[in-house]
Sequence to fold (158 residues):
Amino acid sequence: MKRSQAALEFLVTYAWAFTAIMITIGALYYFGIFDFSKFLPEKCIFTSQLECLNFVMKDTGEIRLMLVNNLGEKITVESMTIKNDANPTLSCTEPTASAPITGWEAGNEHEFIFLDCSGGGYLKKERVEAKVKLTYFSENTPSQPRHTVNGKIQGRVS
Fold:
């Protein structure tokens, strides 16, 4: 046997082994064995004025946010919406749907509960990224101008 033929057989043998390994890795990835999103951290990002302490996304269609008022004054939350970029978009019943949240004192925590969440990839054990928009005004300011704070939550529906 010539040396060139032996070298070619050596390369072909290892090429087949490499191809088999790549097909196996591709199949494992396709079936979700290598789902690296489960290792990503859950995040709740807001401004320092309204700090996010905690959040939970439940598979019952409920999203709970715990925020603390660091504005240094009493505020009223007029509206709070949650959406994402999926199609169809995430839709929930607002916590302020029945009435605005009044008298939120500086330094106090408040839990906001979004109900009946659906759409936007809101499925059990799936990661969801949602944008939260909160509109408020200071009760002590005479003209009561409206301010908007944007936040983002990223997590897995449990």
